[in-house]
Structure formats: C-alpha cells, structure tokens
Amino acid sequence: MRTREVKAVSVREIERAVVILRGGGLVAFPTETVYGLGADALNPAAVKKIFAAKGRPESHPVIVHLADASQLARWARGIPKAALRLADVFWPGPLTLILRRAEKVPDAVTGGQDTVGLRVPAHPVAHTLLQAFGSGIAAPSANRFGRLSPTTADHVRGELGERVDMILDGGPCALGLESTIVDLSGSHPALLRPGKISVSELKKVLKTPLVLPGPTSPRAPGTMTVHYAPLTPLRLISGKALAEAAHELGSLGKRAAILTYRHAPLGGANVTWIAAPAQATAYARALYSNLRRLDQKRVDVILVEEVPPGEEWDAVRDRLEKAASPKERS
Ligand code: TXA
Ligand code: MG
Questions:
Q1: How does DSSP classify residue 112?
Q2: How far is CA 212 from the centre of its chain?
Q3: Separation between Cα atoms, residue 125 and residue 107, nearest integer Å
Q4: I want to staple 67 with a disulfide (CB 3.0 to 4.6 A). Which of 15, 52, 130, 155 is the partner?
Q5: CA pair distance 220, 18, nearest whole angstrom
Q6: Does residue 269 contact residue 250 with C-beta atoms inside 8 Å?
Q7: What pTM was computed for the model?
Q8: How far apart are the first and last CA of the chain?
Q9: Of 1, 301, 258, 252, whose CA–CA distance to 122 is shortest?
Q10: Per-residue DSSP letters for 201-252?
C-alpha cells in the first residue's frame, strides 16, 4: 500500500471524533478501500442517522469496523475456523467477514438479519480512531445511496456536506474499491463482493470450496445492481468499438466522455476523455475519481472501455458492470 499519500490527522481531531461518536454523531473517516460514514455500532439511534444521511433503506446492513482481530469474538458467535484463518492472514486489510452476530449487535446494524459484517481496516487514521473509540464503528461507504464511493475527503464533502458532523481527512484511499466480502455464516464460504483480495488468495487460505456468485445464487442485500453508479448513463464498450461509438454519438449531436486505458486520445469535438492506468491496481485506485470527473463534464453518456480478462481485474469489472446496468438508469 502507498503510505506516502496518507495524511496525518492530529490527536485533537481524533479526540473530537471520539466525542462526536460517543454523543451519537456521525464521523466520516478514511480506510484503505474507500471513506466510511461512521457511527457508534452499539447505538441504534446513531446508526439510524447513517441511513438518513445516505438516503439508504434501513434494511441494508452496515459493516462494523474493529481496531483488531482480537475483538472478533465480542461481535460474532459460532465463529468457524475458516473465519479465524482469514482474519489471521488478511486483517488488517480489505476483507469483510459475514458471521453470525453476537447478541449485543443491534438490528439497526444488521438490517434485522442474524449476521454481521466485520472488518479490521488497514489505515492508520481508521486504526487510531477505532483504538481511541474502543468499540466497533458501524460504517458503510460515505456516499449517498447508490452513488460512487468516495475515495477522498472532498468526495465525502460533496456527497454528504452538512449531513456529517466531522470528516477526518486521511488523503486519497490507497485501494479505491470497497472490500472483498466473504459470507461465513452458511455451510460453505461464499463470495458476496469481489475486491482487492482475490478468490485465489481466499481459496489458498480457506482450503474449502468457495461459492461464487452466479445467476442462480441468492442476491445479498446491498449487492444490488443499483450500486456504484455515476449520474450520467454509463456504457461499457470494447476498445475496438470506442472510436466508432463516439463518432456515432457525435453524428446524433450527443457528447460523450470516455474512460480508456490503452488507446490514444480519441478525436471529435463531442468527445472528452481520460486515459486511465493500464495496470489493475492503479486503475482501481483512480476509478471512482475518474468516473466523478467524467460525471461532471455534463455529457450525454460515459463510455468506458471494457477492462481485460484476468482475476486482477475482477473487482473493477464488477463495479463497472454494476455502474453500466440499465437498472440504475430507471
Ligand atoms: O471497503 C468497504 O467495505 C467499505 C469501507 C468503509 O469499509 N465499506 C463499504 O460498506 O463498502 P457498504 O455498506 O457501502 O457496503 C457493505 C456491503 C453492503 O453490500 C452490505 O449489504 C454488505 O456489505 N453487508 C454488510 N453486512 C452484511 C450482512 N450482515 N450480511 C450480508 N451483507 C452484508
Ligand atoms: Mg457502499
């Protein structure tokens, strides 16, 4: 992880954040994946404020963030060995484990389900905050419901403004995409959301089959296709077809913004473009910022070049497919 971009947050700011959290307020904070919108996980009224600020349905569960893996047993019960192994290898890090919840975990956090999502983030500011707070912080991504997750403090300000009591600015997030989610509450571990930690890495540690989401698998809450979308309609398109699609839009009098990762800039007065990094990690880090920038161009459509095959692109492909899904256009 690139630490040079991590901005320090003062002890005073952490102290103020803890006072706000203890008082039932909302604090946005950086993690290595995206910024989270945090509240005291044991205070249902505070957690409800998260839903109000995001405009998110209350049935959606939120992840509880912990300072370290030793707290796992306080938040979950019947923890399988596989979960302990994953926590041991990948925490702190971009992995969320879905486990059976401990009794104290409020319904407001779990969406009334018997499971809870837990994660130990690998970000010095998140870690310092969690340690100073001394308990779990419930936090979804700090964006309005269905929108792009924020990867800078400015994004959070733009998304939530006065709806959040404090924003801790830790600089841009190193990974830029949300955590990998693995459900360990059922008979087989199941991948609910791809992320930086890949299926191969998980399988190496699990040593049991991992159920992958397929067309027949039940849809987990929050993995709905309405997520991760810019406001401008977005189309995924092969590299070869990009120039022609932009040209066609031009002949219809439409303006296009293009996110490409290998092609030379495309011409045409109707076109504006960003050349994204061709390497998966760097592409992921910049993806949401790039989509936000293209979203602000006030064009008719965002064309995104399809990313290459290969596991290292799985999380990026997943988010792009969700952003392009016709569902969120309605
Ligand atoms: O990287 C991340 O995971 C970021 C940072 C802030 O930690 N958080 C994040 O939270 O992306 P959110 O709420 O935007 O997405 C969490 C996902 C949602 O799809 C939610 O439905 C799922 O986790 N989730 C949380 N608890 C769950 C549970 N008990 N059962 C099933 N899914 C759960
Ligand atoms: Mg989210």
A1: T
A2: 19
A3: 27
A4: 130
A5: 32
A6: yes
A7: 0.94
A8: 38
A9: 1
A10: HHHHHH-S--BPP-TTSPPPTT-STTSSB-SS-EEEE-HHHHHHHHHHHHHT
Q: Give residue ranges with CB within 6 A of ligand 1.
A: 31, 33-34, 36, 60-63, 94, 96, 98, 110, 113, 115-117, 119, 121, 139-141, 178-179, 181, 192, 220-223
Query: Distance between CA 219 and CA 242 in Å, rounded?
Result: 32
Ligand index nearest the alpha carbon of residue 148: 2
Q: Which of 23, 115, 132, 17 is nearest to 64 (CA)?
A: 115
> Tens of pLDDT along the chain (330 residues)?
455 567 889 999 999 999 999 999 999 999 999 999 999 999 999 999 999 999 999 889 999 999 999 999 999 999 999 999 999 999 999 999 999 999 999 999 999 999 999 999 999 999 999 999 999 999 999 999 989 999 999 999 999 999 999 999 999 999 999 999 999 999 999 999 999 999 999 999 998 889 987 655 544 544 544 556 788 999 999 998 988 898 899 899 999 999 998 766 666 778 888 999 999 999 999 999 999 999 999 999 999 999 999 999 999 999 999 999 855 433
Strands 180-183 and 36-40: unpaired
The token pair at 104 is: 């104290």
Counting ligand 1 atoms within 8 A of each CB, the residue from 35, 96, 224 with the most, and so the one to mutate, is 96
What does each C-alpha distance from 42 to 22, 47, 141, 194 come to in angstroms? 10, 8, 18, 28
Q: Which one is the CATH code of 234-328: 3.40.50.11030, 3.40.50.790, 3.40.50.620, 3.60.20.10?
A: 3.40.50.11030
- Give the whole-angstrom CA distance, residue 266 versus residue 282: 22
Which ligand 1 atom minimizes the distance to the CA of 113? Answer: 29
Q: Two tokens at 164?
A: 């959040």
Q: Token digits for 208?
A: 């049991």
